[in-house]
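[PROTEIN RECORD]
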Amino acid sequence: MRPYELSLAAAAEAIRAGKLSPVELVDSVLDRIEQVEPHLNAYVTVTAERARKAAREAGAVRPHGPLHGIPMALKDLIDVAGAATTASSRVRAGHRAEADSTVAARLTAAGAVLVGKAHTHEFAYGLTTPQTNNAWDHGRVAGGSSGGSAVAVASGAATFALGTDTGGSIRVPAALNGVVGLKPTYGLVPRHGVTSLSWSLDHVGPITRTVEDAALVLDALTGHDPRDPASLAVPAVDHRPGTATDLTGVRVGVPRNYYFDHVDAEVEAAVRHAIGRLEDLGARLVGIDVPMTRYIQATQWGLMVAEATAYHEGTVRTVPELYQDDVRVLLEAGELMSAGDYLRAQRSRTLMRQEWARLLREVDVIAAPTVPTTAVKAGEETITWSDGTIEAVSDAYVRLSAPANITGIPALSVPVGHDTQGLPIGMQLLGRPLGERALLRVGHAYERTQPVRALAPVA
């Protein structure tokens, strides 16, 4: 197995044991980037010289943790001192970050090596990342807005990556590219130095090959930062899930409504089969009713559109021509929203949080599809369901992920197979606030019963 094919945990163990050096690992990943980038376009920029220097420095000292010498990609909303944060937009031409974001600084302190900044849908305002190709089928969308991050990990062009998630933007591309994506509890990972889309919905989290890898990255990211007003001051937790696969006593909620409505038959079959595996491992399945489903879309868009437009108010009025058409239209539409609309969305969110808190007292985790369909073809704008209903692609992809952003609860996407076209399918696990350890335990237990997943066969 070549170094770029190793999971984070496996690479860390090889480095700790002296069987692999950071230089060998980083060189392998950089070679892989050179091989696959012409097909994928996952990166805005590749920081090869910087990475090789950091790898040499990591190799000269004793490893001090599992991220030591591990190559990473950062979504290009995340500031790194001296580097551009373009947000994949012409609006940011010539920009340079003056200081590291909190998450970049923490990962660097843990020994991780930046190999590049990954593409996002412009300012994270979309669910397809159109400039990046799906790792499994280059004619299909990568998913967004952390599409570059997910594609880099899925193809071996990064050992792990960070994304951001405002309505599903970590979990959607993770599901569509066959990797693991974790949206933590709102406020658990500081967002200082990360370009905002919608400050009351934004989260930062890892995209990795395995659930164990996600836990290792999460441990390096958490901790209070007073520069982020939403940052939580909570005790440190070791999120590593261990090796046990016994889920006896774990109550897994299986939605009777909403999460399996207007879902592709192959996606539903794969997710229900994975839920059955959880039952085989000892979990008790509990049928649940998802509350307030008729308000989910209006609440998500009512919060996100208003906050995004407020963030971009100056530039969308002075240089609207620098935005891509799809993003500019959304930002201009946000100027038509009233304060009353925004306040109604906030009230709906408060009620939704209360109802979900009641629901999560009945179960330990909820298992459902991450997205209702696999990756659509590039340029495809709508999905027609079997009953004739037509749904916009962006609405379809955000539909099942948005509740976790509105309520702030943690959510984990885990690969559970492929459809007949070879496209990845993801299962979403949702849990209680600060319940990441429970999600990771369940996801890891499922993962350990499955064959080791191969990288996408890019080239």
The longest strand covers residues 411-418.
